[in-house]
## 1
Amino acid sequence: MPGEPATPSSNIQRTPSSTPGPKVREEKILVTVRVRPLSPREQAMYDLIAWDFPDEHTVAFRHPNDERPSSSFTFDRVFGPTCSTQNVYEEGAKDVALSVLTGINATIFAYGQTSSGKTFTMRGITENAIKDIYEHMKNTPQRDFVLKISALEIYNETVVDLLSRNPGPLRLLDDPEKGTIVEKLVEKVVDDSQHLKQLIGICEAQRRVGETALNDKSSRSHQIIRLTIESHLQENSGRVKSFIATLNLVDLAGSERASLTKGDGLRLKEGGHINRSLLTLTQVIRKLSGGKRSSHIPYRESKLTRILQHSLGGNARTAIICTLSPALSHVEQSRNSLSFATSAKEVTNTARVNVVVSDEQLVKHLQKEVARLEAELRSPEPSSSSSSSCLRALLMEKDLKIKRMEIEMRELKRQRDLAQSHLELERKSHKEQKGSEQSGPSHQVKKCLAFPPANTLVGTPETWARNNTGRKATLRQSITSTDPYMLMQEIRKLEILQRQLGEEANQALDVLHKEISSDRLGTQDAVETIAKLLSEIKGMQVFNSIPEEVVVRDKADLKEEIVRLNSQGSTIESLEKKLDNVQSTINKLACSFTTSEDTSNSKSQSKKKKMIPFSLSNSHSVPNFIRAPCSPLSSSRKVMDEIVNKIADDNNVVSCDDNLTASSKTTPLKGGEDCSSLSLKENTPVSRKSNPINVKKMQKMFKNAAEENIRSIRAYVTELKERVAKLQYQKQLLVCQVLELEANEGTNIEPDPVDQSPLSWHSIFEDQRKQIIMLWHLCHVSLVHRTQFYLLFRGDPADQIYMEVEIRRLTWLEQHLSELGNASPALLGDDPASYVSSSVKALKEEREFLAKRVSSKLTSEEREMLYIKWEIPPEGKQKRRLQLVNKLWNDPHCMQHVKESAEIVAKLVGFCESGEHVRKEMFELNFRSPADKKTWMGWNLISNLLHL
Ligand SMILES: Nc1ncnc2c1ncn2[C@@H]1O[C@H](COP(=O)(O)OP(=O)(O)OP(=O)(O)O)[C@@H](O)[C@H]1O
């Protein structure tokens, strides 16, 4: 019973299962000698046995007539004539043959002269090997085996496939990994041992045999039966091990001497090839046996040695069974065979396990190995090796680094977010600042009115196009961003400002009134005037209650706001007028005071002896002053403090009455230093008699204080007036914004059946347009602007907001022109105010500009027709074209004239009469920043007028 192969385990160092790389072990060729019995033919010839077998390893020649052997040969094993093939196999081939089951190449071949028993022996070896191989496979269920067979013969130096039905010669190819391979050699998978035996039978049947004098069935070729065995460890074994190896079973042709074989013709030729190949084999063996591997080994000199190259000094275990005829007649041949066998004993092979690992298997194996190692490294068991502990420490260190980096990343992110938020705040702040700069006096007003500067109107069409492009986006944005909530907020803030302004004006007038009523300043008329003004201003301060929270519920609320805001318009305007009057009165008071002081100095001095010092008389009201930048408080208190301190410094005691002292006690001055100052004076004993007053010095100080007060009040009133004007302007802007909002909402809200009907709007539009045309005329508005507006706004409901805004701006401007010039601009004559003059001059220049374009923009026929139609005489003081232009837009009452004027101007400046080149957006509703103020050439006069 063959068990586990003995040779691989005992003679070859096995490669560790976890390491695919094979380990090489050098091993000499196993050489045994088998001597067959005398053949019947030899016996018939009375041939004698010439060989003796002193032991299992020695074969000795002993001449029959000489009892002492003359020569002996030792080998791994010597099998005598009585030894069975089974025994030869077991001891001379099995170990090597079964190496193929563990992935080691093996070669068993028989070498000997013809008829020495090579075929006989190899047939038995093959049978036993097959038997053992299948037995082994049967007993190794953990592995899957695949057995294949191929067979060839080398006949007359030609390779023939013994398993192919096409016995054509095969080529030998050199493969860098596999060595010499036989091209197209058939390899058949063996099903079982019977199948294998059947195939081997086919090979034998195919092999060339011939009858010679020595052998009836002499093999005339070298036969190589190659068994290839692949073995795979099954998947669930957890081990990776796939082997592949070949077992060459070589039955050589017999070396022969032609004289002995008595061959002729074909047999001689066969013998010649046989001998040549065997000679090469011998040379190879001898070379290899000499230990000179570096020298040339003549493998390629025969196909036999080429094919068996790995088996001869290469990656294979090799066993050579040297077969001998015991006959004395064949002693010389036997000696040659033993000589060959002796040489073969010295040949060393380098066999190794041929492990095959597929990529998939390798990956799986490596993954498992990595998992195992990781588990080992992370194992908390103290029994881990020192290297594992070191690796664990490294892993922990790495984890710590990762955590530190995560913390740093979080901190960096936090800093980044912080920086971004700061940046955002800065951006918002900058935007708000920029917005406030553009929105004029109120930081809260987001949208105000503005008109394109005249230099953009009086320019080329290209200029307009360029400027308008930018404005379109601006206006679209402003219109769509109009928010009722924001407007409500603006209105609220405006009202609060208005109230505060009124309160400040009231207090200022209150101070003024007390100054006058002290009978020191001005006349009785002035006192009455101021008292009346004060009463009026107080009356104006009756505002409706203003809710703190702005709630925009629906459109009705906004309308209410508009109504309420409009109702307050008179209040602001009245306040403005009253302040004008106050200012005028103060100026008169100042004049009268100065005159009075200068002319009746002595009289005043006598009066002042009994008077309470001005500033002190009003000290009780000082803490109630509004802390405005120009508030008279600062000057009043300053003067008062100067007086008090001056008196203290001079060791003079002011002649204060009890009321003053009480007042100072009950109404302390705001500010610690003032109170302490007065307290100090209180605690100082005061005696009128013992501390005479320097009256003259006091009078001078009183006079200075009064003058300072007057100046402060006057400046303050001036400032109030300016603020009221700005407030008024803001209110108008807000009203326009509300109107704009309403117009925008108009598309989504069901129109009022009465007010919003197309018919009523058309009527309103016509009226508004006539009004606008008149205002244009009165305010010297640019002809180009008139033309653009006229052609662009033709009564579309969406034009309502623009019409409203235009009317309001023009009305406002016309009012201011009237007030400042005390006449309408049309009646200003040759010496109008400078701002009116600049408008008139700009309009004149515009007409001259248009006149220059008459020749280029109008054909001669058009010019002639216009001259006739507009009654321009051929001869005149001015050129006809200038006369024509001067007549344009100069009759605001005739709509036909206006229409024709617009058409002519449109042609002259090059834009379409339909207004397609002019967008409504160019009449933007945005307010121009005061920083952008330039010398006004048109509508910027509004802001100039208001000193914005
Ligand atoms: N050990 C043996 N015991 C008995 N008979 C044997 C033994 N060896 C060989 N024979 C017989 O000797 C004869 C020749 O054997 P074989 O054909 O095997 O020789 P050979 O070396 O192959 O010859 P050739 O080289 O011409 O092919 C055969 O009839 C065979 O049966």
## 2
Amino acid sequence: MYFVTAQEMYDTDQFAIERIGVEGKLLMENAGRAVADQIELFVSDQKRLAVLIGKGNNGGDGFVIARTLLQRGYDVEVIVCASPSEIKGDAAYHRDVFRNSGFTFTRYEDVENLGHSLKEKDVLIDALLGIGVKGAIRSPYNQLISFVNQFEGEVISVDLPSGLPADEGVKVDQAVQADRTVVIQYPKVSAFLEHTAAYYGRWEVVDIGLPSTVIQSQQSQKRVWAEQDVSNTLPIRDAFSHKGKHGKGLVIGGAVAMPGSIAMTSRAALRAGAGLLTVATVQETITALASTVVEATYTTLPSEGGYISDIGSVDFSYDAIAIGMGMGRHSEAERMIQVALEKTQGALLIDADGLYALKGNLSSLKARQNPTILTPHPGEMATLLDVSIPELLHQPFAYSKAFAEEFQVYVVLKGAFTIITTPQGHQWVTVTGNPGMAKGGSGDVLAGILLAMVMQSQTVEEALCNGTWIHGYTADLLVQHQHSTYDLLASDLIEGLAQTYRALLR
Ligand SMILES: NC(=O)C1=CN([C@@H]2O[C@H](COP(=O)(O)OP(=O)(O)OC[C@H]3O[C@@H](n4cnc5c(N)ncnc54)[C@H](O)[C@@H]3O)[C@@H](O)[C@H]2O)[C@@H](O)CC1
Ligand SMILES: Nc1ncnc2c1ncn2[C@@H]1O[C@H](COP(=O)(O)OP(=O)(O)O)[C@@H](O)[C@H]1O
Ligand SMILES: [K+]
């Protein structure tokens, strides 16, 4: 499923109107009807409804929704929050159709009067502002939004919560806190940002038949990776396959004081399907791991002060290598990352301490001939970019895209919504996962799953999306059936992979 910026949505509308010849009025009719159909699914006709209508096209949708629900026998009061002369174009057309159908509306005067009208209502439909919102919210919408946010019944927003920007990088001034949002055609970017997603409440998308031609022709496509995508791309294992076919992977990391992280990465890689796995680390860590990760083979690396001091002796001809987990942040790490970047012949995944060490080696990324994958959490990504974490999270799509394109890498920016960006600038978001994963070790498990995934027969893009989706989905299954968001451990995710695969392969 694509998701879009406000401009991409306008371009799509424009394409439908100018190139295909569908009139804007008809698009609005389709949009309003589709939203009304959706509302009908979860609001009983015994409820008392009010629709708040603003001056733009979002308000135009509101007229169609109100007319459709009235014709279907709903009790709907329509309150227009703009002067009639302000309403123009398609919205004015639908205001007239509404009136000519024999229905009436009242005009918004002040909050006190509105309070009176809404006292007996169960559901408020918010069609005040859509994707056209700009800057600080002006009167009367600022009072209206505060008012809606005090309403005790259910608030359903049309397209997006009024006042909320559709795009990233825009400050939120004031916005409706919706219980539900019925999104028209494509989710907007703000549905996937940490600071704006919650305004939507539960949301669902209605299709109004707009063509995806414009979105598909764009360089910067943004899509949600969903269960169907996993089912379509996760390779089916061949009955005659052998371990060599499922990838030969190497994990480099760990230190005397940090044996846990590579233990988790390695076990996760094996559970996720890696054919053969080798762990390269310091001797003490091998001793600690040998009894817990019995399926792996080991390479002892020289150490100094409990940390790996050199990786020059490593065989770099693996199908894929993951480096950095539990490696420690010390002066030698930067040199070792440089060696890994130069010598790794297959895909190279850099995580955790490896990302800190990468900071001084960024220019070497471009010279790599094979895929490089970076898996930062927001703190690591902010460090790589030299920006603050809030700045990064204000526009994570733009920052990830700029970085991935400049350095020709795959970036997996982890979070409640994980953003996967390809070197070509294509972006995917996975929405599986829950706060039970907000614990040390979850990222190490992800690194292992992704290592295994990039060695299976799928594209790197598919591998990263599938791995991230599976990681989060496993946590969701575990929290639904065995665990809670409090007690879930990163190691539970490794064992939980069995349930996910069984569900997917069924
Ligand atoms: N053909 C189309 O264009 C379609 C549009 N659709 C609907 O139209 C919406 C977009 O319509 P518009 O572009 O008219 O945008 P809005 O409905 O968001 O209205 C924008 C208007 O609100 C006012 N406004 C903007 N920022 C404000 C602020 N900070 N304070 C106070 N007033 C402010 C401005 O006068 C602006 O013209 C979509 O969200 C969707 O609901 C759908 O009907 C599908 C078809
Ligand atoms: N609230 C959440 N909802 C969904 N996923 C989450 C949440 N918190 C963390 N995660 C996931 O858990 C992982 C944590 O990774 P990271 O921060 O690197 O942890 P670690 O310190 O264990 O390496 C990421 O994959 C992230 O997407
Ligand atoms: K709205």
